[in-house]
Amino acid sequence: QRRHLESLRNVPAVTKDGKRISLCANVGNVEDIRKALPMNIDGVGLFRSEFLYMENTHFPTEEEQFEVYKEAAMLCPQELTIRTLDIGGDKDLSYFDFEKEENPFLGWRAIRISLDMKEMFKEQLRAILRASAFGHVRIMFPMIISLEELREAKALVEECKKELSAEGKVYDEKIELGMMMETPASVLLAETFAKEADFFSIGTNDLTQYLLAVDRGNKKIADRYDYFHPAVVSAIGQIIRAGHKEGIKVGMCGEMAGDKRAVPILLELGLDEFSMSAGSIDYVREQIINM
Ligand code: PEP
Ligand code: MG
């Protein structure tokens, strides 16, 4: 079985009706990319940049981040999708005092922190932009709930571009700016977001939690946490249709994308890209080829 799966690695993920599906890896660091390369990935659909922050003793500087993103960009065969800092919720930093919150998953996390700490956010954006000169880098914003947030984040990227140009530093001027689709608000506003984002990536881990009002980490209700719930599947369909209506690609980087049982449903809904941990790629590829 293992041999058979490995022999399929060179077969491109094309469905029987001829659609080429992009198969990407979810990673937390450069080492993860190295480990995923033998699976013949099309790129990285989710680089969780928070690990770089969590493993440090201080907010990593622009220079420190640039070195990491640059190495990652040079390793990636195709796209490298870097998600901007997604801390808060269940993820803390040892060197930063997060006030205790009643509902951390509904609290100060992800893009909310970045937009409140603009200087810190800009260091990350500048580092990513500079790395974009070394590969096909894309920027992805987490936990977006409003057009204002997306516009503000995009404006900060523009500001960083101008600064870098003035300093004579190079970057990909056409860098794509996309967003995670992981809040109910993002689903309901998907058509609007699709007009202003360059790509979508569906985060089923949070989307399931927020749509079903089921804490993703609570064992007592784990049987109710289900991304095959009709409400979640319906939301995924809405997101994909909205994206395609505006001509943008829609991927998925939540755990559902690495579940081979979900492949038929996600292909039927028109998903363009599956991004998952390296260990699942062989299995999902086999499913896709047979569909
Ligand atoms: C998600 O929410 O589905 C996701 C991919 O992000 P994370 O698991 O890091 O919250
Ligand atoms: Mg998430």
UniProtKB/TrEMBL annotation:
Superkingdom classification of source: Bacteria
Function (record text): General (non sugar-specific) component of the phosphoenolpyruvate-dependent sugar phosphotransferase system (sugar PTS). This major carbohydrate active-transport system catalyzes the phosphorylation of incoming sugar substrates concomitantly with their translocation across the cell membrane. Enzyme I transfers the phosphoryl group from phosphoenolpyruvate (PEP) to the phosphoryl carrier protein (HPr).
Q: Is the keyword Disulfide bond assigned to this protein? A: no
Cofactor(s) needed, names only, are: Mg(2+)
Q: Name its cellular compartments.
A: Cytoplasm
The scientific name of the source species is Dorea acetigenes
Predominant location: cytoplasm
E.C. number: 2.7.3.9
Which GO MF terms are attached to this record?
phosphoenolpyruvate-protein phosphotransferase activity
PEP-utilising enzyme C-terminal domain boundaries = 4-289
User: Which reactions appear under catalytic activity for this entry?
Assistant: L-histidyl-[protein] + phosphoenolpyruvate = N(pros)-phospho-L-histidyl-[protein] + pyruvate
Q: What is this protein called?
A: Phosphoenolpyruvate-protein phosphotransferase
Residue range from the parent sequence: 243 to 533 of 533
Does the keyword field hold Protein biosynthesis?
no
Q: Enumerate the UniProt keywords alphabetically.
A: Cytoplasm, Kinase, Magnesium, Metal-binding, Phosphotransferase system, Sugar transport, Transferase, Transport
Give the protein family: Belongs to the PEP-utilizing enzyme family.
